[in-house]
Design brief:
This protein has 2 helices and 3 strands, in the order αβββα. The chain is α+β, with helices and mostly antiparallel strands. It has one domain. The protein has a 3-stranded antiparallel beta sheet with strand order 1-2-3. A hairpin with a 5-residue loop joins strand 2 and strand 3.
Length: 71
């Protein structure tokens, strides 16, 4: 069995802002009775949120909207 620390090894953050942007979407009941997906982009160097977008599904359009905010 893997040790918890070995299962997901840490790596150093990027050295410069904008060098690596990580994007993902997460579904949640943000509004009672409705499931929304939050698409988000985070700068790896400093952990700042550089873009975010809500949609009813995880979609390519959602990622495009986040990318548009970054550019």
């Amino acid at each position: 069995m893997l040790d918890e620390q070995d299962a997901h090894p840490r790596r150093p953050r990027s050295k410069y802002a904008g060098e690596m942007i990580q994007m993902d979407a997460s579904s949640f009941h943000w509004i009672e009775g409705e499931v929304w997906h939050l698409h988000v982009a985070i700068d790896d160097a400093d952990g700042k949120v550089v873009g975010a977008y809500f949609d009813h599904q995880e979609t390519l359009k959602g990622y495009y909207e986040v990318l548009y905010q970054i550019l």
